[in-house]
Amino acid sequence: MYNLLVGGAAGQGVETTVTTLEYFFKHAGNELFTTRDLMSRIRGGHNFSLIRFGAQLPGGHSEQLDGIIALNQETVDLHLPQLRPEGFLLMDTGIACEDPRALRLDMAQIAKGLGNQRAAGSVAVGAVLKLFGLALDKAGAADVLQKTLDPQHVAINVQAVLAGYDKAPAKFEPQGGPAVGHMLISGNKALSLGALAAGMQFYTAYPMSPATSILEYLAQQAQEAGIVVEQAEDEIAAINMAIGASFAGGRAMTATSGGGFSLMVEALGLAGMAEIPLVVVNAQRPGPVTGLPTRTEQSDLQFIISASQGEFPRMVIALRNHADAFYQTIRAFNMAEKYQIPVVILTDQYLADTTASVPLFDMGKVPPYQPEPAPIEGEYARYRYTDSGISPRRYPGDPQAIVSADSDEHDEHGRIIEDSETRIRMMQKRMGKLDLLAQEVQEPDWLGDENSEVLLVGWGSMHGPLAEAVALLNSRSGRRHAALVFGDLWPLPQKLLRRAADSARTVINVEQNYTGQLARLIRQETGIAMDAGILRYDGRQLTGEEIARRVEKEVQP
User: Fold this and answer.
1) Fold of the domain spanning 445-554
2) Which CATH number is associated with domain 184-363?
3) What is this structure's pTM?
4) Tens digits of per-residue pLDDT, 71-86?
């Protein structure tokens, strides 16, 4: 498996170069995983992307690099220490570097000679394809570039790719295999497709990274998909619009990041009190306030579980990878409607903006939720007391029922009350749904040795890095290692956790936050305390290599 970094300033075409390379690598039969590290600025600064590709499906990025495309001096200065001894540094002749691994190519001048200096990135693409030993011809180059560029720019960029290819040596053996039925997709796009597959009819949001691309993609698909997409004036309006659409009978979703979710919490309580199904996506980034708007973190878990005053049932699901983003979003809609509760989907910048190879989605893996029509027995009562806590749901305008709702505590018919007896019965009715939810939560993924001595515990996007860390540790250590990676977080699944923690000698939580929020939740709910914690909170994702090193340091012989 190879690792390539493309770095430069904002405005230098890093993203275009990366996207083009992804398509060429995929065209050659490679599996891919590309993560993006962006500064919050339009021009300047330092942006880079890491492309990992090969015959096997990568689960995350790597610290060690086989190649670097440096579009500016800063990329060389920052990332050269990560380059393997046998690797290459591809850079323009104007960049200073005396490293023997450097390959100087006058990309700007070559592109200018072809008639368009902006095609310099395509010169670099061609050179990289040759360095990694990939076959290339004019027809193949045109086929790929037609997917990434406007038609009027294809011809000149084909020439640029071929020119770069001719100027570079072949350095590595190709690792791709036969083309397989996989697609290349970002985490946010996979989530968006899951929402469409779930039958979502209304989506509203205010742009806030790293959730903005959900709004952008769904807006592009709105007419063809037959859905309503609304950019609200703020997050308060967005969640209230979604609640209104759901109350009227539509499947609705909104998405934001932590700062926007802070504005949504009172309305989240309204969905809980009024028992209105709702799906809310929180794409995490470092906080508080603006924090690091283009970086990643897992620091909203405790906030999401307790958001809004009072007590009401909710479900919290963390997405673990790109396929999970699709299937769990469908499940979130089904659970929200089945239990008439808000369901919060937790993702983060790392997963949201990363693109990866994913097997084609199979709708048969998620059975649709098909509600039975709410029975009318005598006078319809929207909040009728039931053994399950789930009341019959009808929609405004139903000729057989008067449907009412209120943000105040209410009786079975939705009328405001003040008496203690009704309050107690209604609270017990609503909160009783948690018992049913606890029976439906999915146990965490088990990775590694079934009889582990060292158990790593993580959640969400730590799935790929933990899988790699466990494989590395088990390949070079005499101890047996395993990991539990949670998707469902609230209610917290406990069966597999209790069994694994009982048998392990050492339990270590691995998280992208300062306080070990999953570890705190586990201790709160089960009494199980971690023996150590591996935490990172600088805005960058832990790699499998870093986790393995830190586990070996924490666990003494």
Assistant:
1) Rossmann fold (3.40.50)
2) 3.40.50.970
3) 0.95
4) 999 999 999 999 999 9
